Amino acid sequence: MCIRNRAYTAQNRTAVLLLNLGTPDAPTAAAVKPYLKEFLSDQRVVELPKLLWQPILRGLVLTFRPKKSAHAYEKVWFKEGSPLEVYTHRQAEALAKHLPDVIGRHAMTYGNPSVADVLAELKA
Fold first, then answer.
1. Exposure class string for 24-43: b at 16+ Cβ within 10 A, else e
2. Disulfide engineering: 103 pairs with which of 15, 69, 78, 111, CB 3.0-4.6 Å?
């Protein structure tokens, strides 16, 4: 429900948080590795028991996959950053522009900006 005559302040404005799955911070093996670790450690993504999956993840997957994935990310990466992050950021900005009483932000379930960080920023 929107109350049109309400005076909006930083304390009582409405915020809309656009969420996306996530992306590494850069198209490099060093940046892809922590992203993959976070993403593939989520039991909703890989449903194997942790005792079975974590040695595979830390031993094989995080040893070989970051370099290969980084190469794939390099092919689509924008000057401004990850396409997923860039487009999600642009959508949040456009939302805020078209709805001036709304704070538009974006966050990634895995990677940056994290949901926890953006929610803390909004709360502050």
1. bebbbbebbbbbbbbbbeee
2. 15
| Residue 120, both tokens | 């803390």
Report the mean per-residue pLDDT for the chain.
91
Q: Which 3 state secondary structure label does DSSP give 110?
A: strand
Residue count (the chain): 124
Question: Tokens in use for 11?
Answer: 């304390």
Neighbours of 122 (CB within 10 A): 13
Is the CB of residue 71 less than 8 Å from the CB of residue 31? no
pTM for the model stands at: 0.81
CA gap 71, 122 in Å, rounded: 35
Tell me the CB-side half-sphere exposure of residue 105, using CA atoms within 13 A: 19
Q: List, in order, residues 6 or more apart from 116 with CB less than 8 Å away.
A: none
